[in-house]
Each structure stands twice: as C-alpha cells, then as structure tokens.
Design brief:
The protein is an alpha/beta fold and 218 residues long. The chain has helices at residues 12-23, 37-47, 63-71, 89-97, 109-120, 128-141, 154-164, 169-176, 180-193, 199-208; strands at 3-8, 28-34, 51-55, 78-83, 101-104. It has a 5-stranded parallel β-sheet, sandwiched between helices. The N and C termini lie far apart (41 Å).
Length: 218
C-alpha cells in the first residue's frame, strides 16, 4: 500500500509542486491538497492520510492549531510541519503538540520523499538546529533536574539523554560502545514505556521532564 499524504499550504503553487513531486514516487500517493488549517482538519477526517505535510503559517487557521486538533484524535496521522526558516518558533510548539518533525520548503525532491517515508515508518525528522533551539527554549522556560523517570532502566535513561542531544542510533551506539540494534531496542522500549509516538516526542519529553540539562554534553 502506498503512503497516503495530505498536503496543506495556502500557496497553490507550493501545493501543486509538492503534490507532483510526491505522486511521482512509486510508494507515495497524494490523496488531497487544501489551503488552510480548518480545511486540513476536515480533510484529515475524510481522507485518513498516513502523513500530513502542514504549512506553519496560513490564513483562517494556522498549521499549529490544526496540528494540535488533528493529533489529539484517535489513530492520528503523522504530521510534518512545513516552514521557510528553521528558526520559526511555531515549529517547536508543533513538536510539543505531537508533530513528527519539520521540513524546509526549499528541500530537494529526495529530501521531501525521504521525510514522508521516515515519519510514515514511525520515526521522527529532527535537524540539529531544532534540537538546539529546544534546549534553549526549555532552559528559558523552566529549571531542569537530572533525575530519570522511574520507568526507565539506567541504560535506557542514558539512551534518552543522547536522543535528546539529537544523536542518531549509530552515533548513540558508538557513544555507549554497543551494537546499533541494541540502541534501536532501547529506543523502542523508551517509547513504549513513556507512551510516546516517536523520537520527536522523546526529545520534548526529555527536556520537559528534566532528564537532561543544557550544555555541550547532558
């Protein structure tokens, strides 16, 4: 079955361009294209997409408000926020709301298709710049502690801290001197134990729960 995608952007040319690029992929099908957040909520309910590409700034209802409503429902799709600049503050609020990541509008066709595949598979799309801004944001907003949640083993807590630093599984494996498959198992256990959807929510959780502290190493 192809990955079903809904494209949400107030610029018709952007919608058409993304739609054409994605429909050219053998494993992706664009099932709808709409121009604002309110239409996105309706289309998501009617079309049941697997992934929604959602512009951050739109008239009538912006992408953040729409993402919050869509992601609060049962069996919600994955949401990738579309933005022009990776320093858009709405992106970080969207991650807290449950979005699986963000994508710059000037991304290449391969990056666009790859992003859809990544989040459809249950992973998250996080750039290092987003992780750094999350650190800064949470540091300003609240004091942090270093006590890991009781549900996690000490090794799982170590993995969560490294995930929150933005490290990929391969890098975490090297850091902890374990096999990459072992890291994948730890990440899966973390998501299950903490009832999190993906790595994006794990990063947000790590800072909100005070599992990590700011700095070059946590």
């Amino acid at each position: 079955m192809p990955i079903r995608v809904l494209v949400v952007d107030d610029q018709e040319m952007v919608r058409a361009g993304f739609g054409a690029l994605l429909n050219a992929q053998p494993d992706i099908e664009v099932v709808g294209q709409v121009g604002d957040g309110a239409q996105a909520i309706t289309a998501a309910a009617e079309l049941s997409p697997d992934v929604i590409l959602m512009d951050v700034r739109m008239p009538v209802m912006d992408g953040l408000a729409a993402a919050r409503e869509i992601l609060a429902g049962p069996e919600a799709p994955r949401v990738i926020m579309l933005t022009t600049f990776d320093l858009d503050d709405y992106v970080y609020a969207a991650l807290r709301a449950g979005a699986s990541g963000f994508l710059l509008k000037h991304s290449t066709p391969d990056e666009l298709a790859g992003a859809v595949r990544v989040v459809a598979a249950g992973d998250a799309l996080l750039a290092p710049s987003v992780t750094r801004r999350l650190v800064e944001d949470f540091t300003r907003a609240q004091p942090v502690a270093t006590t890991p949640p009781d549900k996690l083993t000490p090794r799982e807590a170590d993995v969560l801290r490294l995930v929150a630093r933005g490290l990929a599984n391969r890098q975490i494996a090297a850091e902890l001197s374990v096999a990459e498959q072992t890291v994948k198992s730890h990440v899966s256990n973390i998501l299950t134990k903490l009832d999190l959807r993906d790595r994006a929510q794990a990063v947000v959780y790590a800072y909100e729960a005070g599992v990590v502290v700011p700095g070059p190493r946590h």
